[in-house]
TrEMBL record:
Record keywords, A-Z: Transcription, Transcription regulation
Protein name as catalogued: AraC family transcriptional regulator
PROSITE patterns the record matches: HTH_ARAC_FAMILY_2
Organism of provenance: Streptomyces fumanus
InterPro entries (UniProt xref): Class_I_gatase-like (IPR029062), DJ-1/PfpI (IPR002818), Homeodomain-like_sf (IPR009057), HTH_AraC (IPR018060), INH-QAR (IPR052158)
Pfam families linked: DJ-1_PfpI, HTH_18
Keyword Transcription regulation carried by entry: yes
Segments for region (Disordered): 324-352
Keyword Transcription included in the entry's annotation: yes
Molecular function as annotated in GO: DNA-binding transcription factor activity; sequence-specific DNA binding
Domain HTH araC/xylS-type: 223-321
Length: 352
């Protein structure tokens, strides 16, 4: 791809699609801009048929401007959810239209599925032996239909390099923001998240959204402890320090924290430090040792181990990727929220 050509995202609209999910890649990738306000992605929508109407899971149809030939031009293909997958959902096999459509996708094209879009990738054999996720309500059915896929029903999304899948509905936003971050860095992704009025990253996984007894509204939250910790990531923070902020025992605090956030306090703290390190590596010229101290890892070796585990790259390689204008760093499956404390003025001409 030449420097002047925008990354082309082709969204495959199938009958029975969810309009909300169809709009996610249009909005998220459409908002990604350079500091000079140049669009970083070109987003188009296609069907498995010639241009024309596609049935939505609503009281209207959507007029799709491109046929399946658009897939041959894609750098990334996104497949939103559909409630009319027919043999794909029932038997795990592609329709003839989908077979013909997938034949047009070039080797090396990045494939992205939102919610039940994962069924299409699995039926096409693109998830065989690979980790993936889908909406938690479909997890058991998916596992029975595609036992060859390493399904993880507890996460919001899975990034396996050139194939990515998300859980249902709003998790598609998390995945698309993640892709912007992976392609262009934290600053661009945070701008997109701010303009979309969503967090740059949500902690925890789908387990937060599975039905469970409603918690007692009188129970204390752990939000004060989290806010306190975010202001002190560069300092040593013990579990008892966090519990004291909420006047709880360590055991009670840990239980409440897991209920609210979906991960343990230690896991959450590590994720915040990884994200702080990413931000510093991208946006400052601080040495690796200083970044490690400012992010709270203490030593460069400790930071290197944590970034390697979370992102699959070393701190030096991560910085080099973004300083060289490259894409693809941070392809790990777990990312964390870095609080954007300094909102920038909105360019209203470019967000409407």
């Amino acid at each position: 791809m030449t420097p002047d050509r925008r990354h082309r995202v082709v969204v495959l609209a199938l009958d029975g699609l969810l309009p909300f999910e169809l709009g996610i890649p249009q909005r998220i990738f459409g908002l990604a801009r350079t500091p000079e306000r140049r669009r970083l992605y070109e987003v188009v929508t296609c069907s498995v048929r010639p241009p024309g109407p596609v049935r939505a899971d609503a009281d209207f149809d959507i007029l799709v401007p491109h046929g399946p030939e658009a897939l041959a031009t894609a750098d990334t293909v996104v497949i939103p959810a559909s409630y009319e997958l027919g043999p794909v959902y029932e038997q795990g096999v592609l329709t003839e239209e989908l077979k013909a459509a997938f034949a047009m996708v070039r080797p090396g094209t990045r494939l992205v599925a939102i919610c039940t879009g994962a069924y299409v990738l699995a039926a096409a054999g693109r998830l065989d032996g690979r980790p993936a996720t889908t909406h938690w309500a479909h997890a058991e059915h998916f596992q029975r239909l595609f036992p060859q896929v390493a399904l993880d029903p507890d996460v919001l999304f899975v990034d396996d390099g050139d194939v990515l899948t998300s859980a249902g509905v709003a998790a598609g936003i998390d995945l698309c923001v993640h892709l912007v971050r992976r392609d262009h860095g934290t600053a661009v992704a945070n701008d997109v998240a701010r303009l979309t009025v969503v967090p740059p990253h949500r902690d925890g996984g789908q387990a937060q959204y599975i039905a469970r007894p409603v918690p007692d509204p009188q129970q204390a939250s752990t939000s004060r402890a989290r806010a306190w910790a975010l202001d002190r990531l560069h300092e040593p923070i013990q579990l008892r320090d966090l519990a004291e902020r909420e006047a709880m025992s360590v055991r009670t605090f840990t239980r409440r924290f897991r209920e609210e956030v979906g991960v343990s306090p230690g896991q959450w703290l590590t994720r915040q430090r990884v994200e702080r390190a990413r931000h510093l590596l991208e946006s400052t010229d601080l040495g690796i040792d200083q970044v490690a101290r400012d992010a709270g890892f203490g030593t460069a070796q400790s930071m290197r181990q944590h970034l390697q585990a979370a992102l699959g790259v070393t701190p030096t390689a991560y910085r080099r990727t973004f300083r060289d204008g490259g894409a693809g760093a941070g392809a790990g499956r777990r990312l964390s929220r870095f609080p954007d404390l300094c909102p920038q003025p909105v360019d209203r001409d470019s967000t409407g």
